[in-house]
Specification:
The protein has 13 helices and ten strands. It is elongated and about 115 Å long. It comes from Lachnotalea glycerini.
């Protein structure tokens, strides 16, 4: 990544925060003065906007000037006026009101506090910029919306990401009934896990999704941690792991991760990998209206007891004997129930082709 963003000018909000903090320490009134000699932040709000003659001189000469009681300068009170520099550039003048002999010792303190605040602002700005860059990369790659390919390549290069490396998208979805008041606590655990896995890219998608990229080479190590995290948060979280693709083809991994997530609606589990899916790949790609139409055509007329019977019947590879044993039914009773299902649905579960039609309907209905 590029270096920390450098502040070259102190804004009014930051300056006011600094003067208030310095006054809390030394008890004296503090002013921030710009290069034109205008007070733009002060613990004495009545002075904001006033011209400060000595402050102007300090801004021009870059030299500290002390004003004693007997001195007479426009808009100036007795005190110490010190130029503030950052990375070799002049930023502003900080003036401390009071007898120079008493307040001189606070000048260095004021400089130190100012630099601490500036450094904090730079770090926050840098972190924000890095997160914005991550958001851009992930959005461009997962949506396939690469509007500025040159800038994207520059971002990837800064993060030392090879366009040819294989990556998987992982989607972490908070369940809709999760208490939003606990989100910050969950995010802390999630981001700690991301740090453990050394994930190169991750972001938040409103309202309930977190999208991360996992290097294919690290999958075997990462998978165990992902499964453990999913298990620990199984009441509030679902995880979908996409297929492996080169970085510039990440849209396909993202779409497959969404299919893996959708498959969880039918399995009752809370983590799924696209690579482990079979028929769910097809079902997860279907439009909801098409699925509704299919259900209406096949199993809508069946009650829950009928559907449960078919679920066990298919789990036992359509064996009448094994299904009857599991359901504690006489074989003839089971045959009667299967014939009844055939009459109601129009599909005979005892013939392979029509059994497949019902099987898909049962999976869809879960």
């Amino acid at each position: 990544m590029k270096g920390i963003l450098m502040i070259t000018k102190i804004n009014e909000s930051l300056a006011q925060q600094i003067v208030d903090t310095v006054k809390d320490v030394c008890g004296q009134d503090i002013n921030f003065i710009d290069e034109e000699g205008t007070i733009f932040a002060s613990t004495n709000t009545n002075r904001i906007g006033d011209f400060h003659e000595i402050g102007f001189q300090v801004a021009q000469t870059h030299e500290t000037i002390e004003v004693k009681k007997e001195s007479r300068f426009y808009g100036t009170q007795q005190g110490v006026n010190v130029p503030i520099f950052h990375n070799g550039s002049f930023l502003a003048v900080i003036g401390i009101s009071g007898e120079p002999e008493l307040v001189r010792k606070f000048a260095y303190l004021a400089i130190r506090i100012t630099k601490l605040f500036i450094r904090e602002q730079e770090l926050e700005a840098s972190n924000r910029t890095q997160q914005e860059q991550m958001n851009y990369i992930i959005h461009a790659l997962t949506k396939g919306e690469i509007t500025n390919r040159e800038y994207l390549y520059e971002c990837l290069q800064e993060r030392k990401l090879d366009k040819k490396q294989k990556i998987r998208v992982v989607i972490f979805k908070l369940k809709v009934d999760y208490n939003i008041a606990n989100r910050s606590s969950f995010e802390q655990k999630l981001f700690q896990m991301f740090d453990t896995l050394k994930l190169p890219l991750y972001t938040y998608h409103y309202p309930n999704d977190y999208v991360a990229m996992i290097n294919e080479k690290e999958l075997s190590f990462s998978l165990q941690i992902l499964k453990s995290f999913a298990q620990d948060n199984n009441q509030i979280l679902e995880v979908g792991i996409g297929s492996s693709h080169e970085l510039l083809q990440l849209k396909h991994s993202y779409e497959s991760a969404k299919i893996a997530l959708k498959s969880l609606e039918r399995t009752g589990q809370n983590i799924a990998s696209f690579d482990q899916l079979d028929i769910d790949i097809v079902l997860g790609s279907l439009d909801s209206k098409i699925m509704e139409h299919y259900l209406e055509k096949t199993v809508a007329s069946l009650c829950e007891e009928d559907k449960e019977l078919l679920t066990i019947y298919y789990a036992e590879d359509m064996s009448l004997q094994k299904t009857a044993e599991r359901l504690y039914l006489h074989k003839n009773t089971l045959q009667y129930k299967l014939d009844r299902i055939a009459r109601l649905s129009g599909y005979n579960p005892r013939t392979f082709k029509e059994a497949v039609v019902l099987y898909i309907g049962i999976i869809m209905s879960k």
